[in-house]
Amino acid sequence: MFDCYIVSATRTQVGTSVRPTREVDRMSQASEGDATTGALGKKNLTTMHAVAQALAIGPMFSVALILGGVSRPDIGAGWNATLAVLLAGIGVLAIAYTISLYARKYAGAGAVYEYLTHGAHPWIGVFTAGFFFVGSLFLGGGGIYLGLSVLIDNFWVAHVSDSGPAWWIWGMIALAIVLALNYFGVRLAIRAMLTFAVVSFIPMLILAVVIIAKGGKEGNTLSMFNPGETSLFGITGGGVLGGILLGILLFVGFEAAASIGEESADPHRSIPRALIGTVAVAAGFFVLMSYAFSIGYGQTAVSEGLWAFSPGPVGEMATLYVGSWFATLLEIVVILDAMALALAICVMIGRGFFALGRDGLLPAFFAKTSRRDTPWVGNLMVAVGGIGLTLLVFATDYAAQFGFMDEAGKFIPFFPNDQFATFILAATIGSFAIEIVYLVLAIAAFRLVRASGNKWWQYLIVAVAVATPILGFYGALNPQPHDHSNFNWVAAAWTIGLLVLTLIWFLIVMVMRRDSLDNAAAHAAEHRGVAPLDETLAFESAGDTTPL
Fold first, then answer.
1. Would 403 be classed as within a structural domain?
2. Distances (CA, A) of 409 to 65, 404, 405, 412, 415
3. Is 236 part of a structural domain of the chain?
């Protein structure tokens, strides 16, 4: 069933002694236990499919809703936003390299689950995977449908009619489309992702080129790369470091590429390529867009927060430099990119819950697959996330909670309505959860470095990967106020709640399914090909390096 993960000869030779591998022991134990088994589709996905999955970062969606926040003059980088995005990209690239160390050795439907179960310890892998997949429900697995509801409803009101369906209907339609595409096969879903990504990328790139060609508002300049324009280590009151911490959020989701490892023809090469390549290209794209929008608004306007607090910066730039018709086109582009993001995260979440169900860590029905070999029960968890967060909008009043008092003592809300406020809160919760997982992966990766080259520069990269999410939390939680009016602090409380919920589930599994816990991810045998440092940058073998 999992023939591409069969361990050659089931033994590893060390000197003159022979010992059974840990992974083979696990596979035999799992076959004797009561873990639920299941199978996904053919192992024929390629690097391009993995790249499509990595586009779960939603680059156009992020430009529209997140990029401007990096330029916030109070807690962001202000005029130095472009420099902050560049440095944030370098930090996330270190995380991508770190995850690629796991991807070169292990592959499976649960990705993070298999990586940490084998790369660290089964208990760490299971606990972290449970937390990761629940946290993802708040981001692209559920929160994105609130975002789509807001985007499509705004488009309808602006261009079609003042009256129409309730805002939440649009999110449910998007949810149905995502579930249908994922039910009929991962290749169909990924084709849709690639189509949406390509169609949305070109107009956004054209906008950047036009703004730069016209010189923006005050002419082309490189002054935004001078940290002296604000401060290098400033957070509260503006500074490059504060912008870096916000910029990290632009890249959350790229790890979704690893979720198709079990269906890939050569996951130990295609997944690392997709992880590192997509983050590198996305970083370049975000730097380009940040530069274009910075000069498009001009230094004075950016420093005053006109970009950061604009309700529609993409539309403003498109209208000013091209025309209102192009702004309308870009609104559609952002919606399509959000759909691509939703598709990718559904693929990841469905396979994650499938993997846990197959291994007996969740009820057996999570391991069920459709006639098209898709994890349809696992996919339904995005419906739980999407519908659950929609209900949360009606049960809370976050728009009236998140805001600040002006000089006259009047409360000024951050968000125009409850659905948008809940979307931002959910996205922040999901981002916090995933950044915790990044931290765990990076810390555990020191062990992989020691066993896979032991080079000083590898330790340096992994150290940067450890520091990046820590700084991300500091930048989000350090600024005042530290109360319920600050959505970052409310999101932190929710994240702690998810950790507690995951711990309860983990303890139940430990008591009731100890064998399944100890033999977790037994199907994901270690890659027995060449060691990472014996491969070229194209992940091609550098020849036989077996000691004589």
1. no
2. 28, 9, 5, 9, 18
3. yes
